[in-house]
Amino acid sequence: MDFDKLKIAKAYVRGRKLNQEAKKTWAAAILKYVDASRVREILDLDCGTGRFILFLQELFPSVKIIGIDPSKEMLAEA
Predict the structure, then answer these.
(1) Per-residue model confidence (pLDDT) at position 73
(2) How far is CA 59 from the centre of its chain?
(3) Which of 11, 35, 48, 75 has its CA 20 to 30 A from that of 42?
(4) DSSP bridge pairs for 68
(5) Hey, what's the torsion of the CAs at 3, 16, 62, 38, to 10 degrees?
(6) DSSP bridge pairs for 2
């Protein structure tokens, strides 16, 4: 699927925001299995508009985070 042809990046970012409750749920799930002190880099494959990149920066503020996505428009929003 070519997301750039669909022109959905702006609508995608509006419709997929993480609210505080979702962030708390994701943080609890991640930190249950991940020792934050050992994390150095995070790779977000198919990152879309970057909604998890921003959240992961909050959760792991000193960690390098890389987002990869096949859509140039999605990356531009990220």
Answers:
(1) 84
(2) 11
(3) 11
(4) 45
(5) -90
(6) none
Task: State pLDDT tens for residues 17-63.
Answer: 788 999 999 999 999 999 999 999 999 998 888 889 989 999 999 99
The answer to whether residues 10 and 78 touch, using CB atoms and an 8 Å cutoff, is: no
Give the DSSP per-residue string, the chain.
--HHHHT-HHHHHHHT---HHHHHHHHHHHHHH--GGG--EEEEET-TT-HHHHHHHHHSTTSEEEEE-S-HHHHHH-
- The pTM score is 0.75
Q: For the segment 20-31, what is each residue's pLDDT rounded down to a tens digit?
A: 999 999 999 999
